[in-house]
Amino acid sequence: MTVVVVDDAESALWRRVATLTVSDTDVRAVISPLELAEIGPDEAVQLVITAPAGGPDPDGARLGGVDLARAQSCLARTVDRRVDQVVLVSSALVYGAWPDNPVPLSETAAPRPNPDCAIAMDYLELERLVSAWALDRPDTRVAVLRRTLTVSADAEGIGWLERSLWHNGSVRHGDADPPGQFLLIDDLALAIEHARRHGLDGIYNVAPDGWLAVAQQIELTGKSAGVRIPEAGAGPLARLRWRLQLTSTPPDVLPYTMHPWVVANDRLRATGWDATASNEEAFVAGSRPGWWSTLHGRRRQEVALAGLLASVAVGVGATIAAVRHRQR
Fold first, then answer.
1. At residue 83, what are phi and psi to the nearest 5 degrees?
2. pTM of the complete model
3. Cα(7)–Cα(28) distance, rounded to whole angstroms?
4. What pLDDT digit, counting tens, does each position of 61-97 carry?
5. Strand partners, 315
6. Tens of pLDDT along 15-28?
7. E strand or H helix at 90, and its extent?
8. For the segment 272-317, what is each residue's pLDDT rounded down to a tens digit?
9. Of all residues in the chain, what percent carry a pLDDT higher than 90?
């Protein structure tokens, strides 16, 4: 058996998956799609498709965007090959973040990603590509792993979370305080390997048990509650922070910070997988004490007040602009 990983050979996830897979005595090699031609045409193949792309990173896993062209090219190379198993790493972003979402979302929920979130739309398109490819391969098992917000605890990943739009200890958007989930990238790698080894078929949510309320997230940061930005001003402020490189998160994920999209992991757990890190542990592992923790109490109040005044100004400006637009 040969495992073909559609990933970047330098990515943290690829290294973790390869390390886990090569310990399996039934696996001859872990290769990239470009090396497919080097193995025998009759040898069974398993595909692991993550297809990361350069560009903005929506979470701390550093996978970037979704390379649809690379995934499609790899699938085309397997047209005359026997593929026993496909493990597709997708995202729970495909469910969308909406006020009427149930908490939690199960795999039976229909995908309805927020249309302005490019990466969510790309993940749904990736799922459709693989689904269309599998129509002519009824004997191929396809496991779609819809991961929740994934963070990395290695040196490059630490600190990403506190600079992101996901960090409620820094800023909150809109009036609602939706719960959050945080998956360690090591547990995502274990889920990929589990799906491959056990021949899983179908859609599986990948997340630790439960979720974290905003109050719990703030408590874990050791900070006071973050500044709340009115919904009318959240978009302009997120775009401004992105242009000024004050945030690690692209602004199109903003709806996912204002509405719930946490998922249930019952189906994957029933197959024997379990996260090694809880939401709390993953949240802490992906964070680090920021500059805020070095300020004394009075200075914290001054900075928070300045931030609040700025956010109110942005909100008022956005509201006035919206009213003028409607009047026109």
1. -115, 110
2. 0.86
3. 18
4. 888 889 999 999 999 999 888 999 999 999 999 999 9
5. none
6. 888 888 877 777 87
7. strand 83-91
8. 999 999 999 999 888 764 444 444 444 444 544 555 555 555 555 6
9. 56
For 173, residues 6+ apart whose C-beta sits below 8 A from its C-beta are: 165, 228, 229, 231, 234, 238, 254, 257, 258
Asked whether the beta carbons of 213 and 177 are under 8 A apart, the reply is: yes
Give how far Cα 154 sits from Cα of 173, 186, 281, 285, 322, Å: 28, 10, 14, 9, 43
The alpha helices in 59-167, defined as continuous H runs, are 68-77, 118-134
Three-class secondary structure of residue 25 per DSSP: coil
3-state secondary structure 163-216: HCCCCCCCEEECCCCCCECCEEHHHHHHHHHHHHHHCCCEEEEECCCCCECHHH
Report pLDDT digits (tens) over 105-150: 999 999 999 999 999 999 999 999 999 999 999 999 999 999 999 9
pLDDT of residue 326: 61
Cα separations (Å) of 109 from 29, 98, 196, 205? Answer: 37, 12, 24, 11
Q: What angle do CA 160, 205, 266 make, to 5 degrees?
A: 125
- Degrees, nearest 5: CA angle 93-97-99: 165
The SS3 assignment for 19 reads helix
Dist CA 324 CA 328 (whole Å): 6
Integer Cα distance of 58 and 256 in angstroms: 11
Could you tell me the CA-to-CA distances from 151 to 33, 76, 154, 162, 183 in Å, in that order?
Answer: 26, 31, 9, 11, 6
Helix (H/G/I), strand (E/B), else coil: 75: helix
- What is the DSSP track for 201-268? -EEEEE--SS-B-HHHHHHHHTSPPPEEEPHHHHHHHHHHHHHTT--SS-GGGTHHHHS---B--HHH
Counting every residue written for the chain, the total comes to 328
What would the two tokens of residue 156 be?
A: 């490059």
Q: How far is CA 79 from CA 82, 128, 199, in A?
A: 8, 17, 20
- Token pair belonging to 119: 């990466």
> Closest Cα to residue 279, out of 167, 189, 181?
181
